[in-house]
Specification:
This protein is α/β, with parallel strands linked by helices and 492 residues long. The chain is 33% helix and 19% strand. The chain has a nine-stranded mixed beta sheet with strand order 14-13-12-11-7-10-9-8-15. Strands 3-2-1-4-5-6 form a six-stranded parallel beta sheet, sandwiched between helices. Helix 1 crosses helix 3 and helix 10 runs parallel beside helix 12. 43% of the residues are buried.
């Protein structure tokens, strides 16, 4: 896929396996439409699926998707998207399907094959592409989960490499395409003030919460095959850990960044049952497609350690779940309290110490918490936040960025083979040998056992939708509206 001068070749067609599925409907169609609005959609989009649809039926599916996603406000872009659509109907296990695809590709020599299909079909499709001769000079884009455990990830990598070289394999973790996630990487290494304290000497603990206030939403059959640990912790939350914990890469090159990330995963202690709390919201077993005796977790909290020079002894706490009180994703880096109680109100406990907070959703904010003196003679004060950055309008959709980067051959926000395998190695010990899923009420923060996991480190920080509300702040932080940079500096 690379030209002699080292520049990546632009893909000249997008083949979308699973075009009639849920992922295409919710994510990919809106992303393609957004690309068309910006003039970035200039290649045919060939859908492949089992259903015997006409092009008219596919057009209606796309139209309905866009209307659900916010409406069609650019008729010219919409017409262009429809004009670029093609459709091939057939069974993925039938060679005739790939023969028809090859014919539909026509003169395209560098297609990108997007596997928006269940992982159980990856091998069938990849081998079908190779046998039909449409993998030469092509790329393959693979949706998560990339395997179900370490062994299956190794097998899947072997299968993919039997047809595609590593630099033609694009493994998607759509969290990496979010502006707020990319900003963690930039914020850490574009500034110098964090580095002196970003280590075991000053950091008491790190916690990450990814909360959803909804359930499995008619996707029970799918969720039964993954569960929370596989669905979001091993990939999404581990990628956030890597960005917070990694050493500075030698350059912004893809391989340099991936090498530092994989060092983080390789330094993680493999999880043990006592590090894990699993939960299941009440009523999950009544969801369509869910077994009546299901032990699949819809909530997961875990404690892990990174045995590296920088992070030795610092506990990391990860938590995610469905049907929690609200939807949000936050990282809280708690610093150690001052070594001496110089002032009457000096914090000596973890829950009142300074922290750095990254809110990744629903808004994008980076905040520093520090104590400032209150007016008066006494040396007492309050701890408040200095808000550093907030999300701006005009951000590209994650799948829009992923598609555009994959088509151009930019691998920066994708994951490398050893990255995936090292992450699976951490969770592999508890995928089968784990405690039972404990029931928790809908709208709660999960089983109480998850609170015990982190109790001596100040407890969980519960993100809130309202960034100025008291319950946004960790326990022990006084009420107050966070000042902005402009207020602190006195600038206009």
């Amino acid at each position: 896929m690379n030209e002699s001068d080292g520049k990546a070749v632009q893909s000249d067609a997008l083949v979308l396996f699973g075009i009639t599925g849920d992922l295409a409907y919710k994510m990919i169609f809106p992303a393609l439409y957004a690309m068309a609005k910006r003039g970035a959609l200039r290649f045919p989009v060939i859908g492949v699926a089992l259903q015997t649809w006409s092009l008219g039926q596919l057009y209606e599916r796309v139209k309905d998707s866009l209307q659900q996603a916010g409406g069609i406000d650019d008729q010219k872009a919409f017409d262009q998207l429809l004009a670029l659509l093609r459709y091939v109907s057939g069974d993925y296990s039938n060679p005739d399907t790939f023969t028809a695809l090859k014919k539909e590709l026509g003169d395209a020599r560098h297609p990108a094959h997007y596997l928006a299909i269940p992982p159980s079909l990856f091998e069938t499709v990849i081998q079908g592409l190779g046998a039909a001769g449409v993998a030469q000079g092509a790329r393959v884009i693979v949706e998560k989960p990339f395997g179900r455990d370490l062994d299956s990830a190794l097998d899947l990598n072997h299968i993919a490499h039997s047809v595609f070289p590593e630099d033609a394999i694009f493994r998607i973790d759509h969290f990496l395409a979010k502006e707020a996630i990319m900003n963690i990487h930039y914020f850490r290494f574009a500034n110098s003030f964090l580095e002196p304290i970003w280590n075991r000497n000053y950091v008491a603990s790190v916690q990450i919460t990814l909360a959803e206030n909804f359930g499995v939403e008619n996707r029970g059959a799918f969720y039964e095959t993954v569960g929370c640990l596989r669905d979001v912790v091993e990939n999404h939350l581990f990628q956030e850990v890597a960005l917070i914990a990694m050493e500075p890469p030698v350059s912004e090159d893809f391989d340099a960044v991936q090498t530092e990330k994989v060092k983080v995963f390789q330094s993680m202690r493999p999880l043990q049952p006592e590090d894990l709390v699993r939960g299941q919201y009440t009523g999950y077993q009544e969801e369509p497609g869910v077994a009546k005796d299901s032990d699949v977790e819809t909530f997961c909290a875990l404690r892990l350690f990174i045995d590296s020079w920088r992070w030795e002894g610092v506990p990391w706490f990860l938590r995610s779940g469905k049907n929690l009180p609200q939807t949000g994703n936050e990282v809280l880096v708690r610093l150690k309290p001052p070594p001496q109680k110089l002032f009457e109100d000096s914090p000596l406990t973890f829950d009142r110490a300074n922290y750095v907070r990254f809110q990744l959703s629903p808004r994008s904010t980076i905040a520093l918490a520090a104590r400032v003196k209150s007016k008066g003679k006494q040396f007492v004060g309050v701890q408040d936040e200095l808000s550093m950055i907030e999300e701006e309008c005009g951000e590209r959709l994650p799948y829009e960025r992923l598609l555009e980067d994959a088509m151009s051959g930019d691998r920066m926000i994708f994951t490398r083979e050893d990255n995936v395998e090292a992450a699976w190695a951490v969770v592999d010990p508890v995928l089968k040998n784990h405690p039972p899923a404990l029931p928790y009420p809908r709208g709660s923060w999960g089983p109480k056992e998850a609170d015990a996991l982190i109790a001596k480190y100040g407890g969980w920080h519960n993100p809130a939708l309202n960034p100025s509300s008291k319950d946004r702040q960790p326990a022990g932080v006084e009420q107050g509206t966070p000042p902005t940079v402009k207020e602190v500096l006195g600038t206009d």
